[in-house]
Amino acid sequence: MTKNIYFASDFHLGSPSHSESRKREDRIIRWLNAIESTCSELFLMGDIFDFWFEYREVVPKGFVRLQGKLGMMSDAGIKIYFFKGNHDMWVNDYFTKEMGIEIISDELVIERAGKRFYLHHGDGLGPGDQKYKVLRKIFRNPVCQWLFALVPPRIGLGIANWWSGNSRLAHSTEEVFNGVENEWLAVYAKEQLQKAHFDYFIFGHRHLPLDIQLTDKSRYINIGEWINFSSYAVFDGKDLTLNYFEK
Ligand SMILES: [Mn+2]
């Protein structure tokens, strides 16, 4: 049987409410059940959780089905990667210890079946968004994380849930395509192509499924999100396609 590589991101579990998130989590589990027999590697490319913060002895409640499923897939020999997104960059060693998942902090370059992939959640890349780029440095600073960990979870997670309730998802409007020249991740990908060849650039973060031909040999695929689209990409050893689950 051919083995595939799957890419998905931006589940934003926890948002906008517990019941909505649970429905989405169930759909994700159905998707994982559907793909696992053909899956050799699974790339979870950021913003899997709308908020995640890991204390030394404590992790946030919830999302137990996803964690159990990933643990079982990993135990069955499927290699799973978890990219830090802008909503869930504070993962520590819990996913690795409990589920055998490899954590990726920034970009990851891989080669599979002779194709070169450039993988990244997509936050903080390309032109513009200076405010976020500064915030990202602060949020990713180990001292800031250490200080936040001193705040009791009841207060820390309370602030976080308030913050997450104010994010763009809570006032969810569907994203629209800006045209290739204004799609900052396409601009970023083109810059990278000046330095090295990649067959595929795969990003999340944009919340809009996109499949853009950058040159005759290179494509930018945005894997979208799971609130409106349930979109994901699959590489079957020959070609990469953007798909929609239960659509
Ligand atoms: Mn996101």
UniProtKB/TrEMBL annotation:
Annotated keywords: Cell inner membrane, Cell membrane, Hydrolase, Manganese, Membrane, Metal-binding
Domain Calcineurin-like phosphoesterase, residue spans: 4-208
Taxonomic source organism: Pedobacter steynii
GO cellular component, one term: membrane
Superkingdom of the source species: Bacteria
Protein name in the entry: UDP-2,3-diacylglucosamine hydrolase
Any single Pfam family the record assigns to this protein: Metallophos
Family matches, as PANTHER family: UDP-2,3-DIACYLGLUCOSAMINE HYDROLASE (PTHR34990:SF1), UDP-2,3-DIACYLGLUCOSAMINE HYDROLASE-RELATED (PTHR34990)
GO MF terms held by the record: metal ion binding; UDP-2,3-diacylglucosamine hydrolase activity
Lineage: Bacteria, Pseudomonadati, Bacteroidota, Sphingobacteriia, Sphingobacteriales
